[in-house]
Each structure stands twice: as structure tokens, then as C-alpha cells.
Structure to design on (473 residues):
């Protein structure tokens, strides 16, 4: 079967590949450019462990075909740290102990980032609603919600 | 899970999409958000030779008002529609069903057209090919039996769209474009009531647009689910009232929603509709909750939804 030329930006770096038409974005990120922060858990779009941000919108990358994102700008969890400093959300997750096994964490952080980018002063209810998009099978939701709220409050205090 | 081989094509407009479909000799599927289609393809429940991406078609992404109707393009995402200025005020049942659909991340990807055209589901159908081969194919997979109800004559798979119920309660219509031209039908007519092939749309047809009468309504949507996010309805009830008359739609049980008119708004009238819905709903043991519980809940949620719709009206 013929391949398709796609080019897009990942974490501000332009990339171009010849991909199979039935290749998912998750496979491309993990297998072609070693960005293994995004995880495959259910593979069916239910759990959110593979969440990445495409043009500002959080997407389940296991449900997206790579040809679909031609020309898009993608952020993965590897793209959050800047100049050796962790993103406030990553720090908040560490500080609040919002990590147990860690498999859902990158998806949680990407969902939270897209949310905080569009909602600067979220209420606890809004945080819970948004974070319910992702599943944590250690069921450590309380600390995850606390971490997102903490990151939001720190962000507003900084400005 | 790895996808099977298929070709990917992107259409720039509706005519091009239909031409691509015809060039694939019926072996293609249209792709919008992909939140229903891609899992089905991963499980080998759908094995298209090509996937035609409709996301590049600008015409399908607009919401507009024309005369006395609100026109909603089929590729408007559930999240966009939920946050549209008129939806919450004018169509509260639709707002609530959109809000109850899956979770926010999937609402941002899933489209209203795809949500309506999602395939029916069953605990013994949405499984891997290995699992299904070991169990034996049922009616919906092209076999000769139902794996849930032995000796059943029909397929009992459940139609699990939340938003079809609220759109039905708002008397919505749909526009389809296909190789034989365009046609407009009532949303009710889209359902074949056969779980094997739940829609009356013809091969190659694209659902392009919904139209809803633009009248302020009161309404409510009640959903039975085991989690409060991500899961499909195990029963859903939508009610919309306009000018003292209402429509009640019950879904999530069986291959097509049930629609009832609500004329008598007295306590006895509500109970009668709820009782009728309960009698006509035929749940079987193909979800995570028992059939008996779901049947009882038809009565409960129907009354609850009607009461909420009436209360909002006051």
C-alpha cells in the first residue's frame, strides 16, 4: 500500500515523514521520534493516557490517524519543560504527590494543560469535570484534582 | 491495538467525497471525529478498503439560522455545539445531552453527525476478532444467531447516542447527500429499527446537516450510567416542551429510540407515558447493568425528566 507524506510540528520542531495511511498519531510519536511520554493503555479512546494537544485541543492520539494532522502543531508531555525548568503543572503533580504508578500521568497533565490554557480561574467542580476525561486505575483522583487546582492558583498568583 | 490496512483519502467538498466513495466501489467509510469508527476498525468490526476524511469540508462545520430553523453542520463538534450561544437557552434538553456525552476531551473530537450515526453496541459485539471468533458470530456480525438471547429472531444491540434523543424530542430533521442527490427526512426516519443495520441511509450518503425548529423550549435529559464520565448511556430519556406540548424520547435500549407525545401534563398523564415507555422498552442482558433494573429505571427516569422539564417551564 502506498505511503502518505505528512509534515507537522511537534513541540515546536518541524518533522516530516512518509507514513502508512493506517498509522495512528500515537504510533508515529512513539515509534518514529521516540516521544514515549504518551502511553497506549486501552487503545480505544476511553482512558486518555495517550492525550496530546493538537492545535490547542486535547486529543486521544490513539484515535487519530497521522495523515489527519498534516500541517498541525502538536504538543506532547516532552514539550512542556522549558530551558530545563519543569512546567508548573508537572511541578504541582510532584509536589502534591499526584502520581502513583504514573501510567496515566502524561495524559492527565496534557488534559489539564489544555484546560488551564482556556480557563484561567477554574472552580473545583470544573477541574473535576475536565479531569474525568482521563482514567487513573490507581484511583488517585483526589490528589490529581488538588495538583491541577494548585497549578491554577500558582499560575494566577504569578500573573 | 494496531489498525488493519486501509487507504486514507481527504475530501475538500461533499461532491468530492461522494466521488471518492464511488471510486472505492462501496468499500469505503466516511471519517469525521473517528471516536466511534476507529475503535470499530481496530476491533475488525468494520474493514473498509479506504477511509474518506470529511474534516476538511468547511460547509459541514457551520451553525446558522435560516428562517425558522437552526441549521447545524454535521461536523460541528459536540463541544462547539454545547457552547453555542442559543443551545442552552433554546434547547436545554440538547444542552444537557451534549454535556452528558462521554467526556470533554471526546466532545472536542466527536461530531454531532458522527454521534447520531454511531453504530449500535452490545456487550458481546464490541469485542476483538479473536474473542468473537471463539464465541461464534451473531446476527450483527453476519452470523445466524443472537449470542445474548438464544433463539431470538432479531438483534438486541443498543443504540447509544445521547443527542439523538434530545434532537428527536425537538422534532429535528436531517439532510443527506449521496450519489443519487440530496434528500431531507425527519430524524425518526433515519432509524431502521434493525440492530444489524440501524440506519436507513443509503450506501455513499453523507449526513450533512441537522435542522431544528427555532422555538424556545424547556426540557431535560436524564442518563443512566455507571461512571459519571466517558461511558455510554445504559438508558437515556430526553424531554422537550414547547407551548404546553411535549415529546419524550427513550433510548439506550434496543436498536432505535422510542418517541412519545406528551399532551396530558397532569400527574396521571405523566405516569401513563412513563408506564407505556416501560412496557415497550425491551432491555436484555447485553450491558453492564441488568435488564430488569434498566426496565424499572425507564419509568423512573421518564417521570424525572418530565417533571424537571415542567419545573423549568414555570
Amino acid at each position: 500500500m502506498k505511503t502518505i507524506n505528512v509534515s507537522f510540528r511537534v513541540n515546536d520542531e518541524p518533522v516530516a515523514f512518509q507514513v502508512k495511511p493506517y498509522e495512528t498519531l500515537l504510533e508515529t510519536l512513539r515509534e518514529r521520534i521516540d516521544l514515549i511520554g504518551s502511553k497506549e493503555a486501552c487503545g480505544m479512546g476511553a482512558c486518555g493516557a495517550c492525550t496530546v494537544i493538537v492545535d490547542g485541543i486535547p486529543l486521544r492520539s490513539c484515535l487519530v490517524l497521522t495523515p489527519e494532522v498534516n500541517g498541525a502543531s502538536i504538543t506532547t508531555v516532552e514539550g512542556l519543560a522549558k530551558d530545563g525548568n519543569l512546567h508548573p503543572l508537572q511541578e504541582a503533580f510532584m509536589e502534591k504527590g499526584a502520581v502513583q504508578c504514573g501510567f496515566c500521568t502524561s495524559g492527565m497533565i496534557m488534559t489539564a494543560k489544555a484546560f488551564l490554557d482556556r480557563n484561567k480561574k477554574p472552580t473545583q467542580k470544573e477541574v473535576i469535570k475536565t479531569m474525568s476525561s482521563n482514567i487513573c486505575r490507581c484511583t488517585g483522583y483526589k490528589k490529581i484534582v488538588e495538583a491541577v487546582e494548585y497549578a491554577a492558583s500558582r499560575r494566577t498568583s504569578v500573573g | 491495538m494496531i489498525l488493519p490496512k486501509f487507504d486514507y483519502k481527504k475530501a475538500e467538498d461533499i461532491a468530492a467525497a461522494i466521488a471518492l466513495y464511488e471510486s472505492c466501489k462501496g468499500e469505503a467509510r466516511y471519517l469525521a471525529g473517528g471516536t466511534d469508527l476507529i475503535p470499530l476498525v481496530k476491533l475488525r468490526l468494520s474493514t473498509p478498503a479506504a477511509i474518506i476524511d470529511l474534516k476538511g469540508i468547511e460547509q459541514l462545520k457551520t451553525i446558522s439560522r435560516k428562517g425558522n430553523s437552526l441549521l447545524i453542520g454535521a461536523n460541528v463538534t459536540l463541544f462547539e455545539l454545547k457552547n453555542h450561544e442559543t443551545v442552552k437557552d433554546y434547547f436545554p434538553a440538547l444542552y444537557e445531552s451534549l454535556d452528558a456525552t462521554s467526556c470533554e476531551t471526546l466532545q472536542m473530537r466527536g461530531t454531532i453527525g458522527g454521534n447520531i450515526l454511531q453504530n449500535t453496541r452490545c456487550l458481546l459485539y464490541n469485542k476483538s476478532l479473536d474473542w468473537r471468533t471463539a464465541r461464534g458470530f451473531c446476527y450483527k456480525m453476519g452470523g445466524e444467531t443472537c449470542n445474548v438471547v438464544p433463539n431470538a429472531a432479531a438483534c438486541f444491540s443498543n443504540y447509544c447516542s445521547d443527542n439523538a434523543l434530545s434532537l428527536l424530542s425537538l422534532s429535528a430533521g436531517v439532510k443527506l447527500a449521496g450519489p443519487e442527490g440530496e434528500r431531507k427526512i425527519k430524524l425518526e426516519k433515519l432509524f431502521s429499527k434493525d440492530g444489524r443495520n440501524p440506519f436507513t441511509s443509503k450506501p455513499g450518503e453523507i449526513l450533512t446537516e441537522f435542522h431544528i425548529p427555532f422555538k424556545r423550549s424547556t426540557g431535560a435529559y436524564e442518563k443512566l450510567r455507571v461512571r459519571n464520565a466517558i461511558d455510554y448511556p445504559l438508558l437515556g430519556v430526553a424531554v422537550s416542551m414547547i407551548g404546553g406540548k411535549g415529546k419524550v424520547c427513550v433510548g439506550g435500549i434496543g436498536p432505535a429510540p422510542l418517541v412519545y407525545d406528551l399532551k396530558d401534563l397532569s400527574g396521571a398523564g405523566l405516569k401513563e407515558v412513563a408506564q407505556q415507555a416501560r412496557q415497550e422498552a425491551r432491555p436484555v442482558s447485553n450491558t453492564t447493568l441488568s435488564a430488569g433494573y434498566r426496565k424499572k429505571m425507564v419509568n423512573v427516569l421518564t417521570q424525572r425528566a418530565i417533571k424537571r422539564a415542567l419545573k423549568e417551564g414555570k
